[in-house]
Amino acid sequence: MDQFPEGIILDVTPGSAVFEADFLERLGHPVLVCHGPMHDVCPLLEDQSCEMLDSAHGIVFQLDLDRPDHRKILERYRRVLAADHPIRVVVQPGQDRAYAPLLEGCQVWTHQPNAGELDGFAAQVEASDLLEE
């Protein structure tokens, strides 16, 4: 049995940003926060599995795509996460064009997501959970 509950959202954010996690948890979604390889060794960079990714039903990804290791992590998320589980990527100006092939199939936010956008994302996660049942 998985260590984490179903319907979990993985919030991949640098530093100590937790707005998304707090908001999504208030909507009833369990959230795991990963700060990327800046603080820990990321198993995905070593082609190993990640329990948080394996349990995720949706991802909010906010790491810097100008870093090759961050692009590798996003690529792995895209390969491993089920096709009906949404990935939202927050990019810096111009990254949506520079990394368009990598971002294919992901919804891209060119700004910090607001409450309405996060609520819409949570609804997509719920819909994908219902489809699995």
Could you provide a short overview of the structure?
The protein has helices spanning 19-26, 51-55, 68-80, 95-98, 100-103, 115-132, and strands at 8-12, 31-34, 56-61, 87-90, 107-109. It has 133 residues and is of the alpha/beta class.
Helix content: 25-40%
Question: What is the radius of gyration?
Answer: 14 Å
CATH topology-level name: Rossmann fold
Strand order of the largest sheet: 2-1-3-4-5
The description of the largest β-sheet is: 5 strands, parallel
Structural class: alpha/beta
Number of helices: 6
Arithmetic mean of pLDDT: 85
- Secondary-structure element pattern, one letter each: EHEHEHEHHEH
In CATH, what is the class?
Alpha Beta
Describe the protein:
This protein has one domain (8-128): Rossmann fold, CATH 3.40.50. The protein is 39% helix and 17% strand. A five-stranded parallel sheet has the order 2-1-3-4-5, with helices on both faces. Strand 3 (56-61), helix 3 (68-80) and strand 4 form a beta-alpha-beta unit. It has helices at 19-26, 51-55, 68-80, 95-98, 100-103, 115-132; strands at residues 8-12, 31-34, 56-61, 87-90, 107-109. The mean pLDDT is 85.
Write the layout of secondary structure elements.
Blueprint (H helix, E strand, L loop, with lengths): L7 E5 L6 H8 L4 E4 L16 H5 E6 L6 H13 L6 E4 L4 H4 L1 H4 L3 E3 L5 H18 L1
Parallel strand pairs: 1-2, 1-3, 3-4, 4-5
Which features characterize this protein?
133 residues, alpha/beta, Rossmann fold, five-stranded parallel beta sheet, 5 strands
